[in-house]
Amino acid sequence: MKAKDKQHKTESNSLGERSDASLRGDADSAEDELELATVRHRPEALDKLEAQSKFSRKELQVLYRSFKNECPSGIVNEDNFKEIYAQFFPQGDASTYAHFLFNAFDTDHNGSLSFEDFVMGLSVLLRGTINEKLYWAFNLYDINKDGYITKEEMLDIMRSIYDMMGKYTHPAVQDEAPLEHVEKFFQKMDKNKDGVVTIDEFMDTCKTDDSIMQSMHLFEHII
Ligand SMILES: [Ca+2]
Ligand SMILES: [Ca+2]
Ligand SMILES: [Ca+2]
Question: Model's pTM, two decimal places?
């Protein structure tokens, strides 16, 4: 209790006009909500997102504020997305992986990420059930979105992850490691040996083999 009081006091001191900031925060929320509604030309936008995602209204407002900071126009195209993503991986080339990621977030396939696209993706990645997360990952690996993961698609994703991690991190394994990984995963996943991995095969394998999820780097580099 004392520690909390002290912390609160320090916070108040360091922030100075704490109560004023809170008041402004409330005003901002109302403004954001109005803005969100205006941007989407739909007054029910926030209600709909609140119903469809696993975020509260308050969380959605915070997310929207960050989104607007990064991207004042309210829409992120692939180049913006790559720039934002590259900041997190300065040691490597994240552009190819960012391209795949962009397509996984762009669920309506219109070539740009709206606030809704982001919220729905983050909702799955942060709050989704294991099935929802695996479905999302499957969709990421299924580059041409035809419902199957081929060995080539898996290799493309793995290579893009290695590129992003930096060419100089593991110079000796850079060329061979993705291929070896993919051969191993593919053998495990393609249970009926027909050359493609279906969503059922993908889910079964991932759920019964923890090491696969870890070594596929699922979710590690996404957020
Ligand atoms: Ca979109
Ligand atoms: Ca495919
Ligand atoms: Ca198969």
Answer: 0.74
